[in-house]
Design a protein that fits this description.
mainly alpha; 3 helices; Histone, subunit A; 4% strand; elongated
Length: 94
């Protein structure tokens, strides 16, 4: 079973605004066929190793406030003014 047909290659070339000659269609079809077969093999190996492909899932948790020692954190900065770190300006006012 072909993963991609010559007509699909022509359509993709047209949509991509890529000019290809008719004598190039066969070679491009074979190259794309090899790429798609490789991608399918990679997918198969990944599924076999993990049981299934990882799913992108958002993990939500409640925010929890924790106490911290602000003085200890401020002591790590090179210069502190009140409760803020002093850093060099990166935007000049005009």
């Amino acid at each position: 079973m072909a993963l991609i047909t010559k007509d699909e290659v022509r359509k993709i070339a047209h949509l991509s605004r890529i000019g290809i000659h008719e004598d190039e269609v066969e070679a491009i079809t074979n190259e794309l066929e090899a790429v798609l077969a490789y991608a399918a093999r990679v997918n198969e190996v990944a599924c076999n190793q993990q049981g299934m492909l990882p799913q992108n899932v958002n993990v939500f948790r409640e925010d929890q406030a924790r106490p911290c020692d602000a003085e200890r954190i401020k002591a790590q900065g090179p210069e502190v003014e009140e409760d803020y770190f002093v850093v060099p300006a990166i935007i000049e006012h005009q």
